[in-house]
Amino acid sequence: MDLEEYRRRARTWLEANAQDGPDGRAGGASDPGGVAAAKEFMAKLYDAGYSGITWPAEWGGQGLTQAEERAFAAEAAAFTLPTYVFSIGLGMCGPTLVDLGTDAQRRRHLRPLLRGEEIWCQLFSEPAAGSDVAALQTRAAATDGGWVVDGQKVWTSVAQHADWGLLLARTDPDVPKHKGLTMFIVDMHAPGVTVRPLRDMTGRAHFNEIFFDGVHIPAENVVGRVGDGWNCAVTTLLHERLSIAGGVGMGGQKDNPVAFEALRRTADTADPVVRDRLVELHIRSRALALFNQRLAQETKAGIFPGARGSAAKLLLAELTMFQADLATSLAGPEAVAWIEDGPGDASPGGTGNGEGPGVGTGDGAGGDGGTAGGDGGLAHAVSLAPAMALGGGTNEIMRNIVSERVLNLPPEPRTDKNVPFKELRTSGEAPR
Amino acid sequence: MDLEEYRRRARTWLEANAQDGPDGRAGGASDPGGVAAAKEFMAKLYDAGYSGITWPAEWGGQGLTQAEERAFAAEAAAFTLPTYVFSIGLGMCGPTLVDLGTDAQRRRHLRPLLRGEEIWCQLFSEPAAGSDVAALQTRAAATDGGWVVDGQKVWTSVAQHADWGLLLARTDPDVPKHKGLTMFIVDMHAPGVTVRPLRDMTGRAHFNEIFFDGVHIPAENVVGRVGDGWNCAVTTLLHERLSIAGGVGMGGQKDNPVAFEALRRTADTADPVVRDRLVELHIRSRALALFNQRLAQETKAGIFPGARGSAAKLLLAELTMFQADLATSLAGPEAVAWIEDGPGDASPGGTGNGEGPGVGTGDGAGGDGGTAGGDGGLAHAVSLAPAMALGGGTNEIMRNIVSERVLNLPPEPRTDKNVPFKELRTSGEAPR
Amino acid sequence: MRLVPTPEQRELRDAVCSFLAAASPMPAVRRAMESEPGHDPEVYRRLAGELGLTGLTVPEERGGTGAGHAELAVVLEETGAALLPGPFLATTLAAILLTETGEKEILAGVAAGTTTATVVLDGNRALNGAEADVVLTIDGDRVLARTDGERRALRTLDPTRRQALVEPGGEVAAVSAAGIARARDLFAVAVAAEQLGVLRASLEAIVAYSRIRVAFNRVIGSYQAVKHRLADMHCTLEQAESIVRYAAWAADEAPAELPGAAALAQAYLGRACFEVASGSLLLHGGIGFTWEHDAHLYYKRAKADEVLLGPPRVHRARLADLLEL
Amino acid sequence: MRLVPTPEQRELRDAVCSFLAAASPMPAVRRAMESEPGHDPEVYRRLAGELGLTGLTVPEERGGTGAGHAELAVVLEETGAALLPGPFLATTLAAILLTETGEKEILAGVAAGTTTATVVLDGNRALNGAEADVVLTIDGDRVLARTDGERRALRTLDPTRRQALVEPGGEVAAVSAAGIARARDLFAVAVAAEQLGVLRASLEAIVAYSRIRVAFNRVIGSYQAVKHRLADMHCTLEQAESIVRYAAWAADEAPAELPGAAALAQAYLGRACFEVASGSLLLHGGIGFTWEHDAHLYYKRAKADEVLLGPPRVHRARLADLLEL
C-alpha cells in the first residue's frame, strides 16, 4: 500500500473512531474512568492495526516503517486521542524491550502494552541526576533470586496509573558511573513502591515522585546485562527523542490558545506591529513544521534522522516558549488575571477564591476592552511552556547533541569518566 | 574644582581648539601631514593639561582621577579629535610604564608620549595567539647585553607611525606558557623590524603585521621582570579595557550613519514597523549610554568598575553589529550599491571602476526612491561593525570575564596551565 | 543626572531589605499567598506604619516623609526582589496619584498606613481590588474615589499578588489633568523599579544555584553555556538598573525628561525582567519547574508586571511618539 | 509535497558542485572579482553552454531543458555556496521572467547561453547591469527589453557581484500580468535558494575551522560557547533548507501555494543567511576580519542578498497580506 493510501485509510478510521475528547492528560490522576475509556480506545486502535506500527509482527506489531508511523501521527494530530497514558510505554519502554528484552520479557509484556491492557512508566531521572542521568543514586543490591531497590525517582509521567516501570538503578558504586548501572522491569504494584504526585509550576501534578523502599525485583526482570544499564538507557532515550520528534503521543495545535491560528483571531491585527509579530510566529511555526515534514520524508527515503531529531526538539522548545510569551504580551492584562469560573479555567495554582461579590465581566464603567476577556488559557500556556524545554533533555543537552553528533565537534573535557562513582562530586559540595 | 566646573572648562577649551576634522584614522597610513598636524594638536592638548589626566604629575600627568578623565572624554565625544594615532600609547603603553616601568624608562618615555612627540604601538597578538594571548610564539633569546627577537605580530594599530612598541615575547619555552613570557620596549626603527599594512574586510588597512628578524633589544628595555611578562600584559589589557569603556580615543556617534539620530532622518518612519525598530535601537542605545554614565559616576564615587567594564564592551560590540545590520536592512538595496563618487564613498574594497557611461542618480524611469541614494556610508558601517566584537577581546572572552570576575563563577577546566609551552597543541594539529 | 544611590538611599535599602528578610522570607511569602487574605496583614501594617513606606513620597505637610522617587525606587526594588505579597504597590500607586493631583483626605490615611487603596488600571481591573479600602478611578482629568462597590476577585497567573474586578467611579476626589499625566509616568517608573528587583533576584538565584548544582562532576556554573547566558543576564541587569535610576532621577529632578524616561523604563524593564526570569527558570533545570521551587513565582510576577500597565507595545508606541518618530 | 531532493536532483547538484570546485574555487573567485569584467567569462560560458544552466527551467520547445524550480534551487544553492561571480543569477531571473510571460526571441539566446540578460529590480538598478546584453524592465503588465541605453557601474558592498544603474524601458517584449506576478514569486524562490547556499557554506566554514583552531590548548569547537552557537546555526540551516525545498516544490507543483511560500522563503532566508554568515565571521576571530579570509565575502553576499528584492519588511508585509492578517 502506498503512503498516501495508508494515510487516507488512517484518516477514515480516525474520523470514525476518534472522539474529539480529552487526551487523558488533564485530570487523569483523579479520573480512573478516563483511564478505563482510554484502555477501551487503545484496544480498538490495536485491533485496527495502528498500535505498534513499526514493531515486529512477531510481538504484536505491524512490521511497517517509521514512514507509516509518521503518516498516522500526522493524521492523528487533527484529533485529540486519549492515548497520553500509554505514550511512555509505546514511545520508550516497549521499543527498548523490542531491542533489548529477552524473548520471555517480550512475550509477557509487549502485546498487553500495545493493546493498552497494561500501562508503563520510565524511571531514570532523580533529583540529583537530571541532565546527568548516569549520576543516579538509586541502589539495587543483589539478593537471593534477584535484587532489592532503594532510592527515589522523579519526573515520572503516568506513574499513578502504571502497572510496570522501566527502572535504571546503580548495581555497583565502585566502578565509574556509566559502568555500574543496570536496567530492570519493576512491578509498580510491588510492596515498597510509593507514588506521590509532584505539583509543578502550573499548579497541577503532571508528574510524580516515586520512592523505592526495599522493593524486590526478580532476577529475570533484568533488561540487557547487569552493569550494561547505561547502554540500555541510551537506547531508551534514543526512542524517546524519536517519539517526541515523530509526534507520538503529542496533541495537535488545534486547541492551543497561543498558536498562530488562535492568535490571528484574538490579537489586535489592526496594529501593524502586532501583525508583524504574528508574521514572525507564522514564519517560525512553518519553518519547524516543514523541517519535521522533511525529516519524515527523509526517513521514508531511508535517511535515518539520528541526532537531527534533537535539533527539531530544541526548535520546538524554543517555539513553545516564544509563542506563549508572545501571546501573553500581545493580550496584555487579561492574559494574567481572569474570572475564576471561565470555561477554560486551567490554573488551580492561581489565587482568588471567589469570596468577593459578583461583578460581571461586562458591566465595568470606565473601560474599552478592559474586561477580563481571558479564560486562563494563556496563563496556563505560559506556565506550561517551560516543560518542553526541560523534559526529554534541556536545551543545553540538545545543543550538545547537535554539535557533537551532527556537526562532529569534540565533547567537553570530562572528569567523570574514569573515576569510581562514589568518588564523584555531588551538588552542594565544595569542589574536591 | 568640582566636576561640573572642570567639564565646563574642558568644553570651552575644546570649542576653541578642536577642529572638526578627521581623527587621523582614515588615510593616516599614507598621510604624514595628518600625523604632523595630530602631533601639533597633541602638544596643545598637553600644554592645556588634558593629556595624561590621571597620570602622576611626576611623569608629566595631571594627577587627577578617572572622573575628570571621563568628564573630558564625554565632552570630547562631541568633537572629532585627531588623537587616534596616540590612543594606544595613551590608553595602554603609557599606563603600563606608569605602573611597571623603571624610573629611567618613565623618565625617558612618558613625557614625549603625553606631548605626542613619540607614537607607541602594542605588540601582543599573533596569528596563532588571539584570545589566547599567552600562546604567543615570538621568541626573545638572551644575547650579550640584551635580547634578539624573531617572530610575527598582528592586529597592530598605528604601527606604521610608531616610534616605540610594547612587545610581549617568549623568553623560555620550557616552562608553562604563562611563565615564560617577558615584556620589552622595542624601538620600531631598529634594524630587522618590518611593518606591513594588513588589509581588513573594509578594504582598508586599519591594522598592520609586524615581522621581527633578529631585532636587538638592550637589556634595560625589559619591562618588569624577565619571565613576568604575563602579569605585565594583564596590567596592559586592564588599561585597554578601561580606555575602551572610558571612551579614550573613541569617536562620537555624531557622524555615524547607522546611529539613531541619523536613521530617524533617513528611515521610512511612516511605516509603524520601521518606527518600532527605531524605538528598539533607541532603547538599546540609551540603555548602554546610561550604563556607561553610571559606571563613570560610580568611579567618581570611589567604586572601581573592574570587570564590569567588560560588560560595557560586550554591549557596545552587540549594539555596533545591531545598528549596522538594522540600518542596512531598513535602507534596502541602496545600502549595498551606490554611485562610486558619492561624497562619503568609503569602501575601496567595493567593486565598480567607473568604466560605464554616466547615468545620473535621478533619471531612472520606473521607480520611486529606487535610485542609488546610498553613499557607501552604510556599507562601510556594516563592514566595520565586526571590528568592535573582535578587537580588545571577543564577545566570548568578555562573557568569560563577566561570568568569572563579576559573577564569580568558576573557570573552565584548563589543560594548559602546568604543561611546558613546547608541549602544547597548536592550531591545525591533531589532538595529542 | 544621578545614577548611583546616595548613602542615605543605601541605608534605606538596607533597612527595607533587613525588614523583608526577617518578616517576609520566601517561606512566609508562600504561606501568605495561600492564605485567605493573600498576604500577611501584620507585615503590611509594619511596612506602612512602622517604616512609613506608603507615605514615602507624600509631602511632609500632607503626612508623608517627603522623600523622592529615587528613594521609592530603592524600596520597590526590594519589595520586588522579595516578591512581597499584598497591597503595597497598589497603595503606593494610589499615593502617587493622590499626591500629584493635590488630594488630601484619602492621602492622609494612606500616608499614615491606615488606609489601603488601589487604582483602576484597565477598564475595571485593579491590583488587590478586592481588599482595598478605597478604589480610585481616573476619569479624564478627574480622580474618582469610592469605598463601596462590588468587587470580584480574579484568578491570577501570579499567585503572589491578587487582582480583582471592581466597580469604577465614585465621588470626585481631585481634578488635575497635569497631575494625572505625571502620575501615569510615575506609575511606569514605580513598576520598573519593582521589575528591577524581580530581575535582580532571579539572576542572583540562578547564579547561586549554578555554583552548587553539579552535573557531570562539575558545577553547572563552570559550563560556558551557562556562564555566558548568565553574563548576558548580568549585562541586562546593569542596563536595567541604569535606566531605573535615570527614570527615578528624572521623576525627582527633570520633569521634562520624565515622560521619555518613564516610557523607556517600561519598554526596557518589562522585556528584560521576563527574559531574565525565564532564563533563570530554565537554567534551574527540572527543579525550576516544580511548584516548590521559587523560580516560577519570579517568572509569573515578571510576566504579570510586564503587562500590568498595558501590553509592551503601548510603551514602545508612546516612546515613538515622544521621540517624534 | 516533496522536501527531499530526488536522485536526479542530487546528481545535478554533484555535477554543478564538481564543476564549480574545479572551475571557480575561492582563489579563482577572488581573481575574478578583482578583474575588469568582475567575473571569468569562460566559467560563465561553460555554465551556460556546456551545462545548459541558464536554460534549465526554460521549456524544451523554447530551447531549454524544461526542468523545474526544484532543480533550479539545487543549482543556485551551489552557485551561492561557491559565491560564483558574474551574471548567472541575473540571467536566470531574466529567463524566469521571459518564460513566464511567454517571450520567445530573447529567451532563445538566454537558453542557449549566448545572451546575458538582467532585470531592473528597483527603480533603475540591475544586477550585472553594466555588462548584460539585454536589460528587461517590468512596467505594469508589460516586459520591456533594450540592448542599448546608458549603464553606470555602481560600487557594491559585495565584491563578488556587480550592480549598475541602467536606463529602464525599451521595446515591449511580452505582456502578461499573471506571468509577471508569478515571475516575481519565482525570483524570491531563486534568491532564497542562493541564500541557502551562502548560509550552508558559511556554517561549513566555521565548523571546519573550529575543529582545527586551538585556543587554550583545546580546539575552539570543544568550547560550549562555540558549540552551542553552531548547533543553533545548524537548526537554522535545517529550517532554511526545508523552506527552500517547499517553496521550490510549490513553484513546480502547487501554484496556489507559491505566493505564500515565496514570501515565507524571503522572510526567513534573508535574516537567517545574514545571521549565520555574521555569526560565522565573528566566531572566526580576528582572522575573519581580514580581507584575505573568505568570511567577509559570505557576510557581504548575505547582506546584499537580504535586500536584493527589497528590504526584509517588504516580504513580511506581503506575508501578512497573504495570511489575511
TrEMBL record, chains A, B:
Domain Acyl-CoA dehydrogenase/oxidase C-terminal stretches: 227-407
Highest rank taxon of the organism: Bacteria
Cofactor(s), names only, from the UniProt record: FAD
The Acyl-CoA dehydrogenase/oxidase N-terminal domain, residue ranges: 38-117
Bias (Gly residues): 347-372
GO molecular function (one): oxidoreductase activity, acting on the CH-CH group of donors
Positions of the UniProt region annotated as Disordered: 341-372, 405-432
GO cellular component: a single term: plasma membrane
Feature: compositional bias, Basic and acidic residues: 413-432
ATP-binding is among the record's keywords: no
InterPro entries assigned to the protein according to its UniProt record, in alphabetical order: Acyl-CoA_Oxase/DH_mid-dom, Acyl-CoA_Oxase/DH_mid-dom_sf, AcylCo_DH-like_C, AcylCo_DH/oxidase_C, AcylCoA_DH/ox_N, AcylCoA_DH/ox_N_sf, AcylCoA_DH/oxidase_NM_dom_sf, Mycobact_Acyl-CoA_DH
Keyword Flavoprotein on entry: yes
Domain (Acyl-CoA oxidase/dehydrogenase middle) ranges: 121-215
Record key words, sorted: FAD, Flavoprotein, Oxidoreductase
Family to which the UniProt record says this protein belongs: Belongs to the acyl-CoA dehydrogenase family.
Protein's name in the database: Acyl-CoA dehydrogenase
Organism: Planomonospora parontospora
TrEMBL record, chains C, D:
Gene3D superfamilies from the UniProt entry: Acyl-CoA dehydrogenase/oxidase, N-terminal domain (1.10.540.10), Butyryl-CoA Dehydrogenase, subunit A, domain 3 (1.20.140.10)
Cofactor(s) the record lists: FAD
Cleaved signal peptide residues: none
Record keywords: FAD, Flavoprotein, Oxidoreductase
InterPro entries: AcylCo_DH-like_C, AcylCo_DH/oxidase_C, AcylCoA_DH/ox_N, AcylCoA_DH/ox_N_sf, AcylCoA_DH/oxidase_NM_dom_sf
Acyl-CoA dehydrogenase/oxidase C-terminal domain: residues covered: 189-321
Acyl-CoA dehydrogenase/oxidase N-terminal domain residues: 6-105
Molecular function as annotated in GO: acyl-CoA dehydrogenase activity; flavin adenine dinucleotide binding
Family named by the database record: Belongs to the acyl-CoA dehydrogenase family.
Protein name as catalogued: Acyl-CoA dehydrogenase
